[in-house]
Write a structure and sequence with these properties.
AMMECR1_N; 8 strands; four-stranded antiparallel β-sheet; globular
Length: 172
Amino acid sequence: MKGNSPYVNWAWVVLESFIIRGVYPEIPEDLPSELITKRAGCFVTLHKKGGKLRGCIGTILPAKDTLAEEIRDNAIAAATRDPRFPPLSQEEFDDIVISVDVLGEPQECSVEGLDPKKYGVIVEKDWRRGVLLPDLAEVDTVEKQLRIVLMKAGISPTEDYRLFRFTATRYY
């Protein structure tokens, strides 16, 4: 196991099974209970050991019955279906670092309620949506946080949009 939390350890097990052995892992019965009893949205982020992003996929709200399933499917998606990157290869496997963000319930808010170190942000307009996790090294102001998330969503800053914030606990 390469992580300091059961969430990250499980993500490593999942990726080792899927990337190295080509096997979609079932949920083992001996996982820590919080992975089986808890439901939450989560993001799984892969970085290269130098810090460069290598993949990030997640769910804002729980889409699965357990956090274990949420982490499993988001870890596989981050490694194989992030449209910004080619699928993770076996050769890259030992050069990645995994983090798991477990999300709190989103709450509608105003711009004044944002804090990029404390809250992630969601913007919505019609069918467009953008999400940005909290406490990202390169995002140190609310203005920068909004600019990035609006660009991700394809929403102009002059449009009317709904704004939500959420907390996230990051595990390495």
